[in-house]
Amino acid sequence: MRFRVSGSAIVALALLFFSGSWAAAQPASANCRNTISFEKWLADFKREALEQGLSQKTLSRTQHLLTLDRKIIGIDRGQRVFSQPFLEFAGRMAGGGRAPRSQQLIKKHAALFQKVEAQYGVPAAPIAAFWALESGFGADIGKFEVVRSLATLAYDCRRSERFRKELHAALKIIERGDLTPEQMVGSWAGELGQTQFLPSHYFDYGVDYDGNGKVDLLRSVPDVIATTAHYVQKIGWRRGEPWMQEVRVPSQMDWSQASLDIEHPHAQWAKWGVTLANGKPLPDNAPPASLLLPMGRLGPAFLVYPNFRVFTEWNHSIIYSTTAAYLSTLIAGAPVMRKGNGEPATFTMEQVRELQTLLVKAGYEVGGVDGRLGAASRKAVQQAQVKFKLPADGYPTEELIRRLRRGS
Question: What is the dihedral of CA 49, 174, 181, 206, to 10 degrees?
Answer without folding.
Answer: -120
